[in-house]
Amino acid sequence: MADVDATRGTGPVPPDALRAAENGGGAGAFDGVHPPSSELVSDCVHCGFCLTTCPTYVLWGEEMDSPRGRIHLIAQGLEGEPLSESMVTHFDRCLGCMSCVTACPSGVRYDRLIEDTRAQVERRHPRSARDRALRAAIFSVFPYPRRLRLLRGPLWAYRKSGLQGLISRSGLLERLAPTLATLDSLAPRLRRVPRPPRRVAARGTRRAVVGMLTGCVQSAFFPEVNSATVRILAAEGCDVLIPPGQGCCGALSVHNGRRAEAERFARRLIDTFERTGMDYFVVNAAGCGSSLKEYGELLADDPGYAGRAAAFAAKVRDLAELLDELEPVARRYPLPVTVAYHDACHLGHAQGIRAQPRALLRGIPDLELREIAEAEICCGSAGVWNVLNPEAAAELGDRKAAAVLDTGASVLVTANPGCLMQVAAAVRRRGGTIALAHTAQVLDASIRNLGAAALAGR
Ligand code: SF4
Ligand code: SF4
Hints:
Blueprint: H1 2-8, H2 15-22, H3 38-42, H4 55-60, H5 67-78, H6 85-93, H7 99-103, H8 110-124, H9 129-139, H10 145-150, H11 152-160, H12 163-170, H13 172-176, H14 178-186, E1 199-200, E2 208-212, H15 217-221, H16 223-235, E3 238-241, H17 251-255, H18 259-273, E4 280-283, H19 286-292, H20 295-298, H21 306-314, E5 316-318, H22 319-326, E6 338-341, H23 345-348, H24 355-362, E7 368-370, H25 385-388, H26 390-406, E8 411-414, H27 417-429, E9 435-438, H28 439-447
Parallel strand pairs: 2-3, 2-4, 4-5, 6-7, 6-8, 8-9
Antiparallel strand pairs: 1-3
Helix pairs in contact: 16-28, 22-24, 26-27
This protein binds iron/sulfur cluster (SF4) (2 copies).
One iron/sulfur cluster is lined by residues 53-56, 67, 70, 94-100, 110.
Keywords: 4Fe-4S, Electron transport, Iron, Iron-sulfur, Metal-binding, Repeat, Transport
Function: Component of a complex that catalyzes the oxidation of glycolate to glyoxylate.
Domain 4Fe-4S ferredoxin-type: 34-64, 85-116
């Protein structure tokens, strides 16, 4: 018992931790540090309604690659089964897309179960040298906006030299190193955009003061999305606060079981923003938003931050959610485009935000909105899942690209940089053409009366 208490810090020890400790506290699949909750596991009535919405079950038809199967494996682990290589494989294959949470009629909190399970896997399961090296490389670059920005120069040179086209046409990279091929195909087109200032004043009457997350991938590879977000917020009467050096929100870390790292990022972000006097904290990346809204749970064991984290989380809004709450004041000019809207999983499934972005798009005169078939199935991006599981991610990407192109829309709109990169790569593979834009860029083009040409070729 002493070991369990020591690792948990000063917070109360929950019943599952006690049970895991009594079960050997380390002999079974899980130790006493935030084991997955047996109460949540027992909520599953094995009905199977979640199966057909799970992308890995759709791909492979294997019970253990379904939500129900994974919950069964967690139950086995809680009963004392050791954490086997095969168990870890099935947990690793989960995209964390939360489609099963939407589909489940019993309200099973699979999101909590897999998050706690992943943290156990990362601490307790010895990974292969290749896997360790790949994960170390990913997590020493992706959550650091400055390091990501340093990649822009070499990426630009790689493109300009014609090397990328040559390698991609040869198909050699796919055969030799699918992970590298995936990274190569995902890299977005780079544009030079000046960094946003620290504070942008509301246009007209001020209705709110909002802090804004610039993000890691968003700020390094999609700075024009951040610029559009700032302009929309100002046009809708918001003072926008954008402190530099805000760092990562920790989403990537927490979704991959790196809880301690996620906690560090969360503390830093709270320190950066909590004394700015903001009414809201706005986020334009779905994956970041869903994690930020859970800061209260993430830092619940930290007496210095628990209350502050919960207060911070209560202010978090996705951009579409905030604009819907505020109601529009800026004039929308016509934008004669046909748009297919893709629900990013961490916006639709994890945050339940589906109606607001559609309402924003429908509020633009002359814009026609089309729905994508199989909308609930993930595009295969899922943070860094597509880098860790390149072949399966390409299959899901191809499936999504086909559904997107079937709509006949001229622009694909979504609210997550990962989805934009993933679908863009898949559309390119199929030889299709469709412009890609974040919801913010579409609204911005309408508010500034830029016309449909502003979205073409993105
Ligand atoms: S989170 Fe997604 S991939 Fe994982 S079990 Fe649920 S539906 Fe399947
Ligand atoms: S997770 Fe929900 S939908 Fe899936 S089998 Fe269990 S109770 Fe049924």
